[in-house]
Design brief:
Layout lengths: L2 H5 L2 H19 L5 H10 L8 H10 L6 H13 L3 E4 L4 E4 L9 E6 L5 E4 L2 H13 L8 E6 L2 H11 L1
């Protein structure tokens, strides 16, 4: 576990994400239902990607009778509101680290521990849009996923190799 994870107040982080979601949905004229809130809370539960069926299992443990389409509709609502991102390579979802500002998804994904770091590098977005335009293509949405090792897993791999 990294130094920053030791200092991280996860309960406060989840509370902040939920409060920010309320504000964003109110501003957008969207209704954040109890189910939407719970799904968002589950997405933020570990700072690791979570699949729809894991969310469904957690809702069942809560005593909620939810079917897969219900979970997918809630996730779609949260994505449209800019509160979560879908990681296609993992078929999973993660909370957006900056939901108050529209941006394209750029993610570093550790192939070992599945930690995800969200980047917001405007230069990357600009280069992709320029390359697309040069090819006669209009890019509407983009998600960039980079697989590799986080600093902690890389350090552990170095120790194991050395």
């Amino acid at each position: 576990m990294s130094h920053s994870e030791h200092e991280h107040n996860h309960a406060q982080c989840v509370a902040d994400a939920l409060n920010q979601a309320e504000q964003i949905c109110t501003h957008q004229g969207r209704r954040l239902t109890t189910l939407h809130r719970r799904v968002l809370e589950l997405v933020w539960s570990s700072h690791r990607p979570i699949g729809a069926y894991s969310i469904l299992d957690a809702l069942s443990e809560d005593g909620r009778k939810a079917a897969p389409p219900t979970v997918y509709r809630a996730l779609e609502f949260l994505m449209e509101a800019g509160l979560v991102h879908r990681l296609d390579s993992l078929n999973a979802f993660i909370g957006c680290s900056d939901p108050g500002h529209a941006h394209q998804g750029q993610f570093l994904i550790c192939r070992n521990c599945r930690q995800v770091i969200e980047l917001d590098t405007e230069t990357v977005d600009t280069h992709i849009r320029a390359a697309a335009a040069e090819a006669g293509f209009f890019a509407e949405q983009q998600t960039l996923e980079v697989q590799g090792l986080c600093a902690d897993c890389h350090a552990q791999a170095d120790v194991a190799d050395g």
